[in-house]
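Entry 14. Ran structure prediction on the chain below.
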Amino acid sequence: MKYILRLLLLILTFGSTNLQSVCSQSGYEIQINLKNNNDSIFYLANYYADKFLISDTSSGKTGSAVFTGQNQLKQGIYILANQKKEKVIEFLVGAEQFFMISFSDDLNPENAVIKGSADNQLFFEHIGKVNKVFSQVQQIQAELSKIENEPDKKDVLIAKIDSLNKNIADFRLSIIENNPDLLFTKILLAMQEPEIPAELNDDKEAAFKFYKNNFWKTFDLSDERLLMTPLLPRKLENYFTQLVLPVADSIIMETDYLISLTRENQTMIDFLVWHFVSEYQTPKIMGLDKVFVHLADTYFSTGKVSNVTSSVLENIMDRANKMRNALVGNPAPDLMLIDTTGNFRSFRELNSDFTILIFWDQTCSHCKNEMAIVDELFSSKKYDLNVYAINSTNDFDAWKKYIDDKKYQWIHVNGTKSITQDFHNLYDIYSVPVIYVLDKNKTIIGKRIGAAQIEGIIQNWDK
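Output, structure tokens:
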């Protein structure tokens, strides 16, 4: 139900924003005492987006960890891990980096004793309050499940949950208003999601637009401390899976928009660009490789990414140059290859509503299966289509024999003899089988799909 889901979301998300004034002391000293803990080795780890990195090690006194260093730690959410590298607690490292946290037996955040860190004082107080409210909500939820046919009692219990949620919201608001410079305040701001105005509740389109337009309002992408929390990857995933159309041009517009919000913070630019590269170099949705080409042209080739070596840059641009030749929506690069009779043939001679290009190899079992499916569709005559099959091996005799045996009535060519450029580079072919679908104008409308998906592409194409 909505009222409990909302509370869960508030419990499970973390983040941080603007830089705070630098503490006058250099270095750091963090002491954490755990009553009745038998470990003598502890690790200090920090979030880096959705990963954990070991920052420091402490060994010596049982149940006590002391971490010291000459340079300040990067601000963010940190983890104390035991000698098995299991998480014991999370805490904050803000501008104050000389502090102590002491726990009783059960690690109850309400009983934590904090010295020297206003961030952690509020952080643990907040966790304690949220845990208590969550427990109360669970109890009320159990009561609600027993009174489905008693609307008056149900309304009273729901009102109690609303009141509990409001108490937490008011507590957070008081922290934000009274402690504008604390790291934890920035965390609370970054946790916020847009509140849709009541007047938009009956207008789904307007509500969606408002939510999307305000999604990043309290999330400062110019603050690299966000990388020291797990919040940014979650935020990006939610935005692109729920609020952005899975169309290349839409995604390109959104990636540029988010990178502009970094206000030229180089660390954040580097992170975001590499994040998008990992998403769209080999995308799960057809056609989104255009986003990778855009990233290569806009950010890598122009020197806007700092953490890239010359060899990696060369590989990225080489990959983009191969991909750009055969993007969905582009004219298909011409091929002039030799057929089984020794003549050079181009798929552009085929006058049909659709043309199937299939790159294959007669020694490849998967290729054979795909060829059979293509032939079944071709032979059905359901659509006005032709097939141009490009073989990738130089065993001409075996290639011709296989075609003879199967009696595929298409244009068959061999890619090893060509008048045009190498088909591997033109169509980004590094393994087979690979299938492209072209429209009447020989524009690419489908690529890297299975043979069984060809019919769906054709049916959904607006001629």
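The chain has a mean pLDDT of 91. Will compare against last week's run tomorrow.
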